[in-house]
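A favour, since you know our structure tokens better than I do. Just paste the record in under my message, thanks.
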Amino acid sequence: MTGQGGVRVISGDGVSRRGRVAFAVGAVMVAVILAGCSKESPDSSSTADGSSSSSAAATGALPHPRPQCTEEAIQSAAEKAASHFGETVQDIQQFQCSGNFAYAFADVNQQGNVNSVTLLFKANGTSWVPADRGTYCTGGGVPANIYFDACETQ
């Protein structure tokens, strides 16, 4: 801003009004750019009752393809995981999905004994695949809203 006699008016801290406006606009642009650069898509969560939420739907953004969070999808993944060890799944007691992870409390037949176990799955395209709890629970990959059930239970 120019005062009387063509003298530039500067605030007490030595920054012109134009400089303050340019800084504010630049800060907003950086925030918008960083918001668009997040590594993962908006989180969506689903539970055994079929309810889900997604911030992607609210913004119109297309989410990455993810596996369905249904009892059938979790049962199929659990059966594949158990068959790798020569075991069978008797029942899925509870499950929940969040982001790229899901867990299930399953009753598994192990050498004639039925044991309740917690299974962790990670999204791989449109399928759930077994995930190592030691790796993902200690590495911080499991979302907070399912962490306790997925990682702190037997």
